Amino acid sequence: MGEWIGINRRARRCYGFDEVALVPGALTLNPNEVDTSWEISGLKLDIPIIAAAMDGVVDVNFAIAMGKLGAIGVLNLDGVQTRYEDPSQILSDISKASNEEATEILQKLYQPEIKESLIRKRIQQIKAAKVPAFVSCIPQNAEKFGKISQESGADCFIIQSQVSSARHLSKEYKVCDYGKLCKELKIPVAIGNAVTYKMTLDLLELGASAVLIGVGPGAACTTRGVLGIGVPQVTATIDAAAARDYYFKRTGKYIPIITDGGMRIGGEICKAIASGADSVMVGSSFARAQEAPGRGYHWGMATSHANLPRGTRIKVGTSGTLEQILVGPATVDDGSQNLVGALKTSMGSLGAQNIKEMHDVEIIIAPSIQTEGKVFQVVQRVGMGK
């Protein structure tokens, strides 16, 4: 399998969102009657879209707002929310500062130590609003923060790193034992990020309650450019889904996979789910929300599998309210708003009644999908021509 790229060396062709399209079904459905719900360890959620654990995206209020809309916002336990009693002022300062001023602020931002009392407080604040509390941290803090999160009532604990493997070796520092942690904690433990069949299957066999898929595709992620590492998201998701399905056939346990990163608009979310994702994790789309703590910015955090220095800030621009972005109504024509509506309409056109049926729709290789017949959109700078 693969093409020759030199003497004795083959390379497999892999695909990203811009290179494929979904084929309409012979049966179509009323979009209002499709089921977009998904489950993680028995917890059923109406919307398969998760706001990423980035300081410029999710704070307590944002997580609560996502939860009330039927989705999830993941709180970063390594960031400002657990270092400052009231981080709102410093986040506001960053959003209003020039690039030079913001760099100076960010260089000092993560110097204070993480306070365990604030981890407990933030989780309890989210739970007090009667919505699920999903939290995330890096592997180095997972053992300690996992126990605190469980005691505080968190519904899911996510461990994220640049690349997550079941077998990590180091003589310099203590390695997080994913298998042990999954057994010890009584709450679901999701692990990421992976991009291959083998990596996904290994993490499932360790007891992961979900596996996050994606290395390098995020808007704030430089891994592919700096390290040359990563797999385009369509192929990565399809390979991971094959591992999930094999694990299900062998054990009877269906464990969701979550495509993480590389999605800005509704069509890309639809393609991720058609590739086999049970849910998706999105950052830049929600960083645009008026309610986002970063006010239209996101930047490298302590969790950063994005491989960004902490002084890096990326402007993504504001684009309506959280409700407009997630469930509409849309006021723009570029696919960045009403993400759930886009998914429902796509499912209806494809004849998929639920997320699992979406996994079986036809996908074609379509390199001209972004440009074919779009001359007027390009000239007028509307829709896909922007």
Textual characterization of the structure:
This protein is an alpha/beta fold. It has a single domain, classed as TIM Barrel (Alpha-Beta Barrel). The chain contains 15 helices and 16 strands. It has helices spanning 60-68, 88-96, 99-109, 116-128, 139-152, 178-184, 197-205, 223-227, 233-251, 266-274, 284-287, 322-327, 339-350, 355-358, 375-380, and strands spanning 3-6, 9-11, 20-22, 38-40, 43-45, 49-51, 72-76, 134-137, 156-160, 189-194, 210-213, 257-260, 279-282, 297-299, 313-315, 363-365. The protein has an eight-stranded parallel barrel with strand order 6-7-8-9-10-11-12-13, surrounded by six helices. Helix 1 links the parallel strand 6 (49-51) and strand 7 (72-76). Helix 2 packs antiparallel against helix 3 (99-109), helix 7 runs parallel beside helix 9 and helix 10 (266-274) crosses helix 13. The two termini are 37 Å apart. Mean pLDDT is 88; it is low at 299-311.
Q: Main sheet, how many strands, which sense, barrel?
A: 8 strands, parallel, barrel
Q: Report the CATH architecture.
A: Alpha-Beta Barrel
> How many H/I helices?
15
How many domain regions?
1
In the CATH hierarchy, the third-tier topology is known as TIM Barrel
Distance between the termini: 37 Å
Number of strands: 16
Query: Superfamily at the CATH H level?
Result: Aldolase class I
Q: Report strand order across the widest sheet.
A: 6-7-8-9-10-11-12-13
What number is the mean pLDDT?
Answer: 88
Uncertain spans, ≥5 residues at pLDDT below 50?
Answer: 299-311
Q: Radius of gyration, rounded?
A: 20 Å
Which class in CATH terms? Answer: Alpha Beta
Helix content: 25-40%
